[in-house]
Amino acid sequence: MFPDTLFSLEPYDPRKDLEFYKFPTLSLLKKYDDQLSRDSIDKQEQYENANRIRTVLKDFGVDVIGIRATIGPTFTLYEVTPAPGVRISKVRNLGDDIAFSLSAIGVRIIAPIPGKGTIGIEVPNKKPRIVSIESILNSKSYKETNYELPIALGKTITNEVFMVDLAKMPHLLVAGATGQGKSVGLHIIISSLLYKKHPSELKFVMIDPKKVELDSYSSLANHFLAALPDTTNPIITDTSKAANTLRGLCELMDRRFNLLKMAGVRNIKEYNTRFTSRQLNPCKGHEFLPYIVVIIDEFGDLIMTTGKEIEFPIARLAQLGRAIGIHLVIATERPTANIITGIIKANFPARMSFKVVSQIDSRTILDRSGADQLIGRGDMLFLSGEELVRVQCAYIETQEIDNVVNFISKQQAYSSYYELPVPPDEDNDLFGEQKEEIRWDELFVEAARLTVAHQSGSTSLIQRKFAIGYNRAGKIMDQMEAAGIVSPTRGSKPREVLIADEISLQNKLEALGLS
């Protein structure tokens, strides 16, 4: 009887869990005067810049047939058509000379513009225009989009709204020096999703080592946030809790893959379609699966303090998470090779870079130069595949974020935040059932006494004192970490010794059955 009843029901609507929920309105956002866009650059400035560019190029032996200008929010693209026989490389090296002639902050040269027989010279406007989030979310393209996870980032050189689908990217790496718009970019991403998705369709996992950047969203816990059980603050600020949370996401990922296998589908969209059409039985463990977007701010600090403990689950989620609706957005102000490793880069095809300090940083994040030549204040380059697009990121004020959060937090909510499964190895009692399985090294007790006596957890110290190889000394250090005698590795910092004196160590050894 049950299957017949199941198929006779109307389609399942996940939004009926919170059927009185209302989406945020555009009135919560600040509206800027459109006059700012018309006054961003006048004809005289455009004419003078074109003449100066023509003069500089001629001084260096580059003849120009014509120059065409396209005015953007914060910079203008001058498309230069060179005379036949002109070497492109000759123009490519004239960026500093053109910037000097125009008295510009920085000039970026695109030689050649892909698909065109022209050279692009991007020059900052003297009166840059503010691209408000209200103008982006109020656009026709955003309102009518059918993207699963739409992110409206800003406006391009042609003043068109630049929008991407996080579900197809499927993960995003964000970089930028301090004060160049990286944090505002994260808020734009979050706000774009809050304006489009119902709490039943989307959950955020927010990891913020800086402790203040994402705290504004803590009051959305019972609407949009996900965390491990018994978490006091769903905005994760502790690095050890961040590692456990990511392992919990890996466990959730494995469970979701089992559900997809049982349903005979390949991705979350097909699964949810079958569930809403009543083709999957909830009594067999099936449920509607919301998308999960993981936001990690200050990834550099996280990876320096926890290392592989963080990198491994992130790599797993990045490799496999797309099919089951888990998408990562990772931000760092230090796009160095030891932070954005090869494993991370390989699984984050979409990159978003604000102004960075050096060309090396630009090459690390984008695999090419250019981000070091941006003008700051939200000016960014977006890379997806081989296509590089310059975008002026939208701007959102703190008060606007608070308005949106307060509007949502006052509405009907779930009884608690979305609970992630506890990872299998989260239990700290490592010496319960497994105590007899551990084969302690013969030098473990002596090495532990040496470490406590010196109050220094060092593999090299054990090597020197016991005249053993690095591999064996490293294994002893791992056993002392598991026993709670020394702390986990902390990047370049030495391990902390957790046992204060010989008496405490003796008690620990007796508990392990080693005394």
Question: Layout of SSEs?
Answer:
Elements: H1 2-8, H2 35-38, H3 43-59, E1 64-71, E2 75-82, H4 88-92, H5 95-102, E3 108-110, E4 119-124, H6 133-137, H7 140-143, E5 150-155, E6 161-165, E7 172-175, H8 182-194, E8 202-207, H9 221-224, E9 226-227, E10 235-236, H10 239-263, H11 268-276, E11 291-296, H12 299-306, H13 308-320, E12 326-332, H14 342-346, E13 350-354, H15 359-366, E14 379-384, E15 387-393, H16 398-409, E16 418-419, H17 444-454, H18 459-466, H19 470-483, H20 502-511
Parallel strand pairs: 7-12, 7-13, 8-10, 8-11, 9-16, 11-12
Antiparallel strand pairs: 1-2, 2-4, 3-4, 5-6, 5-15, 13-14, 14-15
Give a short synopsis of this structure.
The chain is α/β, with parallel strands linked by helices and 515 residues long.
Treating each run of at least 4 consecutive H or I residues as one helix, how many helices?
Answer: 20
Averaged pLDDT:
86
Global geometry: globular
Would you tell me the structural class of the helices and strands?
alpha/beta
Whole-number tally of structural domains: 3
Structure description:
Strands 6-5-15-14-13-7-12-11-8-10 form a ten-stranded mixed β-sheet. The protein has a four-stranded antiparallel β-sheet with strand order 1-2-4-3. Strands 9-16 form a two-stranded parallel sheet. The chain folds into three domains: 9-30 and 130-415, P-loop containing nucleotide triphosphate hydrolases (Rossmann fold, 3-Layer(aba) Sandwich), CATH 3.40.50.300; 37-124, Threonyl-tRNA Synthetase, Chain A, domain 2; 435-511, Winged helix-like DNA-binding domain superfamily/Winged helix DNA-binding domain (Arc Repressor Mutant, subunit A, Orthogonal Bundle). The model is unreliable at 35-39 and 426-436 (pLDDT under 50). The chain is an alpha/beta fold and 515 residues long. The longest helix has 25 residues, at 239-263. Strand 5 and strand 6 (161-165) form a beta hairpin. It has 20 helices and 16 strands.
